[in-house]
């Protein structure tokens, strides 16, 4: 869907709506693009104060893009528009390894949001390993969960977004 905009500040309600539509907190959106929750809050509050490169990276993580169109009369100036991207898929066919009891959700740019299921946290904490030697959830402490995900996914960047959610993505330069 296109949203014709004349000023970058008109993105404000659209950025927040896109993030909420994807079911992401500001911290989770920040982890996807490699910035803090506070920076996402600043961008949502004043998108005109951020560079186009950063804005494009955030919009890409939210499944949207923007472009300039030259179909307006010459005297009206540039028109900014946002286009919604494809819906996120919630499947288990990701290239990350997670212990039993975790859910995965593919995001844009090769990122995967992994969340420890809230069901039966005591049972998950009691598990250690199965017959195949696959690692299971040993502790629900955030530091232990982070170390476990890092050990299962060497060569990938693992960042916490909350006590039970993490973003796993290929290691790359961040902005």
TrEMBL record:
Residues 120-175 are annotated as: Disordered. SMART domains: HTH_XRE. Residues 15-69 form the HTH cro/C1-type domain. InterPro entries: Cro/C1-type_HTH (IPR001387), Lambda_DNA-bd_dom_sf (IPR010982). One of its GO terms (molecular function) is DNA binding. This is HTH-type transcriptional regulator/antitoxin HipB.
């Amino acid at each position: 869907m296109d949203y014709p905009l004349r000023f970058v500040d008109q993105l404000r309600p659209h950025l927040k709506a896109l993030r909420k539509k994807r079911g992401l907190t500001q911290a989770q959106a920040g982890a996807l693009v490699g910035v803090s929750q506070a920076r996402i809050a600043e961008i949502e509050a004043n998108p005109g104060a951020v560079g186009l490169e950063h804005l494009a990276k955030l919009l890409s993580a939210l499944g949207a893009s923007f472009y300039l169109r030259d179909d307006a009369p010459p005297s009206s100036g540039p028109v900014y528009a946002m286009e919604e991207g494809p819906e996120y898929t919630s499947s288990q066919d990701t290239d990350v390894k997670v212990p039993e009891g975790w859910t995965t959700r593919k995001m844009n740019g090769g990122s995967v949001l992994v969340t420890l299921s809230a069901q039966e946290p005591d049972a998950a904490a009691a598990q250690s390993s199965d017959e195949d030697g696959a690692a299971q959830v040993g502790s629900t402490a955030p530091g232990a969960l982070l170390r476990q995900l890092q050990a299962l996914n060497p060569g990938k960047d693992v960042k916490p977004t909350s006590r039970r959610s993490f973003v796993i993505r290929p290691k790359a330069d961040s902005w």
